[in-house]
Write a structure and sequence with these properties.
By secondary structure, the protein is α+β, with helices and mostly antiparallel strands. It has a domain at about 1-120: 3-Layer(aba) Sandwich (Aminopeptidase). It is built from five helices and seven strands, in the order E-H-H-H-E-E-E-H-E-H-E-E. It has helices at about 10-25, 35-45, 45-55, 100-115, 130-140; strands at about 1-5, 60-65, 70-75, 85-90, 120-125, 140-150, 155-165. The longest helix has 16 residues, at about 10-25. It is globular. The N and C termini lie far apart (about 30 Å). The structure holds coenzyme A. The site of coenzyme A (COA) has 19 residues, from helix 1, strand 4, helix 4 and helix 5.
Length: about 170
């Protein structure tokens, strides 16, 4: 059985452990080794994770299978005052992908967003991340726009923004 647990600062090592396996595996054929190292340090250092949680209102949830944390997701309600929730990250350990955990985590966020009257849920995805794109489409998200984001050090993120409007009937 999978349990979904809100994460705290104390779970930073659990999040880092999952990202250390899932991140390089996801992007090894999409980004250079240098860009992977740069982005992992930018997003998953102790300082960065702490800042996301404490200052930027990023909420992390972990999926637990038995005694093992196997996935995490982070989201931000009312991101940039849009009245929309942004999913910032979702990573399932490769050994646990395609078993319904991504769907459970997405449904958790969609339920929260509906309960709080948000208009939509959206997220960014690398244009070449075919597996994630298939999953988002399966979850009822569609491409709202394209975005190229300069992340420093000569690197860019070449993304689609996917969105799912929420009805409140
Ligand atoms: C993409 C990811 C989050 C999906 O989570 P998951 O737990 O593997 O997906 P689920 O098992 O919950 O799948 C839910 C549905 O999507 C479909 N799906 C999932 N991955 C798919 C893929 N690669 N191709 C086609 N369909 C897919 C499933 O078949 C399932 O459909 P169903 O509801 O009809 O049965 C997960 O595989 C992952 O962590 N990938 C690597 C990290 C990543 O790319 N993160 C996103 C960065 S933007």
């Amino acid at each position: 059985m999978i349990e979904i647990i809100p994460a705290t600062i104390d779970n930073i090592p659990d999040i880092q452990k999952i990202s250390a396996v899932a991140w390089p595996q996801t992007f090894k054929d999409i980004l250079s080794e240098k860009q992977i190292a740069y982005m992992m340090n930018w997003m998953y250092s102790n300082e960065s994770l702490r800042e996301q949680m404490e200052k930027n209102n990023h909420r992390y949830v972990l999926a637990k299978h038995g005694e093992e944390f196997v996935a995490f997701l982070s989201y931000e309600p009312n991101c940039e005052n849009t009245g929309k929730t942004k999913i910032h990250k979702i990573y399932i350990l490769p050994s646990h992908q395609r078993k319904g955990i991504g769907k459970l985590l997405f449904n958790f966020v969609l339920t929260k967003a509906r309960e709080t009257g948000e208009k939509a849920v959206y997220l960014n995805v690398n244009k070449n991340n075919r597996n994630a794109i298939n999953f988002y489409q399966r979850m009822g998200f569609y491409i709202a726009k394209e975005e190229v984001i300069d992340i420093g050090n000569g690197f860019v993120m070449d993304d689609y923004v996917f969105e799912k409007p929420l009805d409140h009937e």
